[in-house]
Amino acid sequence: MKKLSIFIIAGVIIAGTSCKKSFLDRYPQDAISPQLFFKSEEDLALYVNGLLVLPGTDIYYGDQSSDNMATTAAVEVKGVMTGSPSSQTLTGGWDWGRLRNINYFLDNYNKADVTQDVKDHYVGMARYYRALFYFGMVKRYSDVPWYGRTMNPSDTVMLYKARDPRALVVDSIMADLSFAASHIRSSVPAGTPNVWAAKALFARIALYEATFRKYHPELNLQATAGRFLDSAVKVTQDIMSNGGFNVYNTGKPDQDYGALFNSQDLMSNKEVILARPFDASKSVSSGGTGTVFGDYEQSPARDLVQSYLMDDGTRFSDVPGYAQLQFVQEFLHRDRRLAQTLASPGFVRAGDTKPYIQRLNKNFSGYHQVKGLTNTTDNILAGSVDVPVYRYAETLLIYAEAKAEQESLTQADLDKSVNLLRARVQMPPMNLAMVNSNTDPILGTMYPGVTGAMKGAILEIRRERRVELAMEGFRYDDLMRWRAGALLAQSPEGMYFPGLGKYDLTGDAIPDIILVDKSAEIPTDDKKEKNALGVNLIYYKAGSFGDNVTVYMKNGTAGGPLVTEVTPRKFLEPKYYYRPVPYTQLVLNPNLKQIFDWQ
Predict the structure, then answer these.
(1) d(C-alpha 434, C-alpha 460), whole Å
(2) Does the structure show a pLDDT above 90 at 85?
(3) Shortest CA distance to 63 belongs to which of 294, 360, 387?
(4) Are 419 and 427 in contact, with CB atoms under 8 Å apart?
(5) Strand (E) positions, 281-371?
(6) What is the torsion angle, in degrees rounded to the nearest 10, for the CA atoms of residue 136, residue 137, residue 139 and residue 143?
(7) Which of 518, 504, 494, 498 has the alpha carbon at shortest distance from 558?
(8) Residue pLDDT, tens place only, 402-437
(9) How distant is the alpha carbon of residue 340 from its chain centre?
C-alpha cells in the first residue's frame, strides 16, 4: 500500500512536480477565465496542487556551495570568489513567473462557491508557496520588490517598482506564514505540505532572519532580531508539544540515522514532517543517487570529517596529532553519524564482495558520501527512495539554537532537543555548563562573531547542526546567516598521507594502494606488487598540484592533505552575502538600484 494517495488526485501531484506537465503549464493563466474556472473546491485544489514544488535528491548535492564539499562543478559562489563578478555576469535568479502564478490564485480564489474554511485552507497553501518563493529572493538579494497581487503589463506602477526594504518583505513573508500555519489543514494528500510543514518552514525562516540580522550589522536591523528568535522558539515549541513527531530511533545506532535517507517509505516515519515520495515502479522515479558517492563532481571535505566528535563526546581536535591522522584512524571511535554520512573503512558497495578501496583522483578529496546513496544495483529500488523535506531533527536544532541565541537555553532544553539526536547514535548528552566553560578554540576561530554567556553552547549547537544536517543542503545558508563567508575562502582539502608509500584504506592493516613519485613508471598488472592477500596494489603517481600526477598532496612528495584546488579565493564582506540585480533588469527598470557596492 506504499504511497498510493500521492497518485490519487487525477495525476495532479505528479504533474506538478514534473517538467512541463503541470496544470499551469498546460493551461496558461491568461487562458484561464476566473469566472469559468474558480468555482469549486476541486478547482481550487487543482490549481494549488499545480503549484507544488518539493526538493528531490538534489538536496544531497546542495552542500557543494559550502565548506562541507570539494567540487568540480560550476558553483556560483566559487565563481564569485575566484572571478570578477558583476551584474552582467550574475544574471540568474531574477525570475518572477512563479510569483505571478501564486498571486493569480490569490486574486481569484474568492470567486469559488465554497465555505470560508475551505477557501482559507487553499489560500494558506498559496501563501505558504509565496513565502517560500520570497524567502529565496531575500536570501539572494535582500531588498526586493514586494508584489502582493498579479502584475499586469499595463500597470506601470507595479512594472517600475523599486526594491522594497528587507524588513517590509520579511514581515510580509511572516504574515503569509502566520496565516498558513493557522489555516492549512493537518490532513492533506501524501507528499503535500500540511499545517506542520507550514510551521516547520515558519520556524526555519524565523531562525534564519533572526541570526542574519544579529550577525550582519550592515543591515542596521540587529535591534529587531529578538522578535524573530521569539517566533522561532514559539513555533518549534508548538511542533514539539502538539505535532506528534519523534526522533527516529529503533535502537540501532549504526543504522537509524542513515536509514532516514535510504527509505522507500518515509510517509509513516514520525521524524519526517514532509517527504517527497518516489516509486519507480509507478513511473515516479527520483533518478537515483549514484553520483553522490564522491567520484563524480563532488567529494566531502576533511574539515567536515574533523568536525565530528569522538564517540565519548570529546573533541576530535583534542586527539594528539589529529591533523596527521590517516583515513583509517580518522574513523575510529567517532560519532556514529560520520560512518552513516561518509564511506568508512570496510564499506562494501552493492554488487561487490570485498571492501571498497577509496578512489583517488585529481581535484577530489578521497572521501566518499554515503548519506543519500542507495547502495543497490536495483534501479527500481534506487529510484524509489523518498526524500525528507522537513525533518523533526531540524525543528529540534532550531529550538536549541534560538534559545541559545536568546541566552535562555537550559539543560532541560538541550535534553529535549539536541540530546535526543545524540541519543539516537549513543552519543553522550551535551552538558550546558561544560560546553560554556570549555569553549572549542577551533569553533571560536571559525565563528568569531559569537560572544556572550552562551558562546560555548552556540558553537556546539552549530557543530551539531553541521553534523546532523550534513549533505542536506543547509550548510551554505547557515554560513551566510552566521556571517561566516570567510570559511568559503579556504579551499577544501582531502585525506592525509604522510608521503609516498603504501597505505591501508579498508581497515584490515594490509596495504591497498601505493603512492609513487611522478617520475616512476607504473608497472603492468602482471608486475605490480601484491599485498598479503595476493591482490595487486593500486598505483598512483603523487606530487604537487599541477604535476603530471593523479594525487595532489599539499607538500608534494613530502605528503600532507590532498589538495583539491589552488585557485585563490576571496570573500568580500558584506558584498558577497548578496547578489546583484541583473544588469538587463536595471535597464528595463531604472528604479531598481544596486546595494552593497554591486555594479
Answers:
(1) 11
(2) yes
(3) 294
(4) no
(5) 298-300
(6) -160
(7) 498
(8) 999 999 999 999 999 999 999 999 999 999 999 999
(9) 17
Say how far apart CA 121 and CA 149 lie, in whole Å: 19
Whether the pLDDT of residue 24 is over 60: the answer is no
What are the beta bridge partners of residue 275? 388
> For residues 518-546, b (16+ Cβ closer than 10 Å) or e, as one string?
eeeeeeeeeeeeebeeeeebbbbbbbbbe
Q: What is the pLDDT of residues 330-361, one digit of tens each?
A: 999 999 999 999 999 999 999 999 999 999 99
Overall size of the chain counted in residues: 599
* C-beta separation of 404 from 418 below 8 A: no
CA–CA dist 515, 562 (Å, integer): 12
Closest Cα partner for 420 from 249, 273, 591, 565?
Answer: 249
State the pLDDT confidence band at 153, using cuts at 50, 70 and 90: confident
User: If residue 300 lies in a helix (H) or strand (E), which one and from where to where?
Assistant: strand 298-300
DSSP state of 524: P
The C-alpha atoms of residue 193 and residue 128 are separated, in whole angstroms, by 9
Give the integer Cα–Cα distance in Å for 443 and 379.
Answer: 41
Give, for 127, the enclosing helix (H) or strand (E): helix 116-141
Question: Do the beta carbons of residue 99 and residue 148 sit within 8 Å?
Answer: no
- Encode 513-528 in three state secondary structure: EEEEECCCCCCCHHHC
CA dihedral 366→371→372→377, nearest 10 degrees, is 70
Question: Whose CA is closest to 146, among 128, 164, 130?
Answer: 164
- Three cell numbers written together for 232: 522561532
Q: Express each pLDDT in 64-73 by its tens digit.
A: 999 999 999 9
> Beta strand pairing status for 501-503 and 493-497?
unpaired
Q: Is 80 exceeded by the pLDDT of residue 16? A: no
Cβ pair 129, 102 in contact under 8 A: yes
Contact 560, 485 (CB under 8 A): no
Does residue 35 or residue 123 have the better pLDDT?
123
**Residue 460: band (very low, low, confident or very high) from pLDDT cuts 50, 70, 90:** very high
**Is residue 295 within 8 Å of residue 361, measured between CB atoms?**
yes
